[in-house]
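Chapter review: from sequence to fold.
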Amino acid sequence: MSKDIIQRLKSFMTEDRFKLFNNILDKRTNYITVGIEEIYQSHNASAVLRSCDCFGIQSVHVIEAENKFKPNPEVAMGASKWLSINQHAQENALETAINKLKKENYRIVATTPHTNDTELEAFDLEKGPVALLFGTEMRGLTQKAIDMADEHLKIPMYGFTESFNISVSVAIILHHLRMKLEASDIDWHISDSEKDALLLEWMKKSIKKSDAIIEKIEEQISKEGK
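The token string follows.
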């Protein structure tokens, strides 16, 4: 039924916006997802979401057992509106998030300069879908997150400072891996059913009183089916 609803709902928005949604969906991927652990500065939280949207990363996992995740709308520029944000806020949030990602066949990759890591240039995307974990502004990932990861990844550093700001690290890594993804033979696109679900969700967010309109559309479809 979602395809029927989409076709009838599109008359309530401009053709250009509908095309824009479809063009963006063609570039969306869940082959790479991002997990952020205990990010508490709103500026950084927002910048991470903005980078995910800009690089076509659809899903973000927010792990917040201790620190509340509070994006700044002015910095995020509305990015959270278009992303699939999975929040893990319970006491064992880290374990819950990692177990969920592993069940979805993600390789858990901790980004940290403190282990014998794979450098960004040498990272192999061909081995399967990737969940990139990023930690807090001050201490990075918790030791538990590092220990639970399947692999570890670092950005090469050439100065005295040992690491980048969290939002900068996310942007650098996503830019590099997105370019690798585009140049590969990996089937990284989201499925048609995922596209339909997201398209409908985005349309609802873009059309005033969309719930009431959809209710009427569903009634029409139901009557036509009788």
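Two observations follow directly from the output. The mean pLDDT is 89. Residues 125 and 181 are 7 Å apart (CA to CA).
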